[in-house]
Design brief:
Length: about 350
Amino acid sequence: MSTVPTLPGITSKMIETPRLKMHVLFSGNESATPVIFIHGNASSSTFWEEIMLKLPPQYRGIAPDLRGYGDTEDKLIDATRGLRDWADDILALAQTLGLSQYHLVGHSLGGMLMFTLVPMVGDAVASVTLVNPGSPYGFGGTKDVDGTPCADDFAGSGGGVVNPEFPKLIAAQDRSTNNPQASPRVVMNSFYWKPPFKPAREEDLLSSLLTEKVGPDKYPGDFVPSPNWPNVAPGQWGPINASSPKYVGESVKKFIAAQPKPPILWVRGSDDQIVSDNSFFDLGTLGKLGFVPGWPGDAMYPPQPMLGQTRKVLDQYVANGGKYWEKVMADTGHTPYIEKPNEFIALLVNHLQQV
C-alpha cells in the first residue's frame, strides 16, 4: 500500500473518508487509546514509524499522510482557508475510524496545524504534543511576538519564498548531493537533524520527502509580485501559501479561547535551524545575513521570532485556563524524535499518562 517500505509492526492502509482517500499507517491494538501523529512539510507518515513502534501497548499509533504528501489522494490545498483543509481532513479521518477521543502529536507544519485544529475538535482531544512547531502566526512575514506583519500584503511569506530548485529536484526524484543548496538529500541532512547525525533509515526518509506533490498549484504554490521587500507575496494554492500569516493569523484568537483546553507538551530541538528566532528558511534572517539583497533593516523586516511567538501564544493559553510544558532536547535539530527517539518517547509517554 505504501510506496515507502514500512518497518515490521506497522500496517499501511488506504482509508476512504468523506473528503478524500487518505493513506494511513497504524501500530498497536485497535482497541487501545489512539495517538494521531501529524508529519511536517517535505515528509510523510514514514517519519513517525519508529516512535509509533515504541508506544506502550495501551496506545495505538495512527499516522496519516496529509493532503499533498505521501500516498494520500492528490487533491489541491486551498490556501485561502489557512490550514483548515488539513484540519477538516483529520476530523474526517477520526470520524471515519470511529475515534471518540485521541491524543494529537504534530511536528513542524503538523505542529502549526494544532493551533487551528484544537478549537475545532472540542473534548475529543485528550492532549496535544507540539514538536518543533511552526509559529502559530504562520511562517515568514511577521516581525514581533504579536505576529505583526512586516507588510500589508504579507510579503516574504508563501510560495514565492521557496528556492525553486528544491521542488524541481523533488519532482525529478533526485537522490544525489549534486546541488549543495537544493538537493533534497543535502537539505534533509543539513537541516532536518543536527549534523553530523544521519538516521539509519536515511534512504526511506529521503523517499518520504520525495513524495511531496509538486506544481504551481501544489508545492511550493503560486505567488504574486509585491512592491514590498522581498517583492513576492502569497498566492492561493499549496502548503506554503496555506501556512502564510495572511491566512492563518486569525486562528490564534480561536486557539487561545478554545474550550476545553487540552494540556500541551512543547518539545523542540536545541539547535533547530528551520524553526527558531533566526531561521535559515526565513527571509528576514537571510536578508540580515546578506544572502538576499535589498534587506530593508531590522525595523521593517527583522528575523521572525518564531519561538517567541509560540511562547507568547502558549502563555496566553495558560492565562485563559490551559497548561503547557516546554522541553528542550539538547544537541538535536528540527526532528529530535528521529535523532533521540528514546529520549523523545519518554517525554511523550509521560505526557500521555498524565492526562
